[in-house]
Amino acid sequence: MIEIHFDEASEAKKLFWLLNERKRDAGPLFHAVCDGNKTVAVYIHGEEKHVLEAHIIPVLTAFVRGSVEDRLLLSIISDVFYFRDREEQQQILALAHSFLDGERRDYRKGEGFAASRMALLREAFASFLRDGLSFSFSSFATFRLRPYIERLQHYVELAIDEYKLEQEYQNFVQMLRDCVAAREPKRLRLYLVHDPPRFLFYDSHRRELSAEEVKQLIDRHLVVSQPMYIDSSVLAPLVSLAPAEIELYTDHPDDGMVQTLQNVFQERLCLRRRADFSRPFAANAGNWEES
């Protein structure tokens, strides 16, 4: 028998449920008993090594990932990095999951990350579990799961870096929105054509503006007075002009600059397909004049 003691009855019940789900495949090789409080006992009837490796360890690994991992992540966020605001904690937790689940690239990953965090869990359980053992799960986590918890802390660090960058980006976007809102539009309409990596400017008559003409549109006082760097090839001239309408033609709506332009100019900006720029003017296009 392996006896596992938990601090919370809810965790004991969750593990007991997972073990019973697994028993459907394992048959008579083991059975589990929950005392209705905080202890789960696992009775092994088959060959010990096989039952542990094929059934008990996979269940415990799934239990940690599904029922314990978020609590550990939140503990790291709060107690190691001192983010105590609940909303901030949840945002960082979501970012940590995006790294853990592979949605975001781990740009710090090195040679020491050959094993997955699930492999670290399996190794910890395999080197510890044996028939006749009675242990506290919280003590096991503290003393036996250190490599796994260190891996979680690594991803929390990445998430915090990303969170701070996103906060800076949101502040930057809001600053530009405020600039645009405070300025009188110097052009009623501009056309912008995305020809990666460039953005080509066209006036209301679809005459292409040269790089020098675009440069001359920049309000130097605007650029110098802002605390953050403003891209001089696209953002600076557009914010300087604060057009009433911008038609942006692109085949790359997920491009970072395209998304920034959408975030800054919002309802002033209309996104269109790149091929649509070659189509004839709408009938009322000539009604827009340069101001």
Automatic annotation (TrEMBL):
<protein>
    <submittedName>
        <fullName>Sporulation protein</fullName>
    </submittedName>
</protein>
<dbReference type="InterPro" id="IPR014199">
    <property type="entry name" value="Spore_YtxC"/>
</dbReference>
<dbReference type="Pfam" id="PF08812">
    <property type="entry name" value="YtxC"/>
</dbReference>
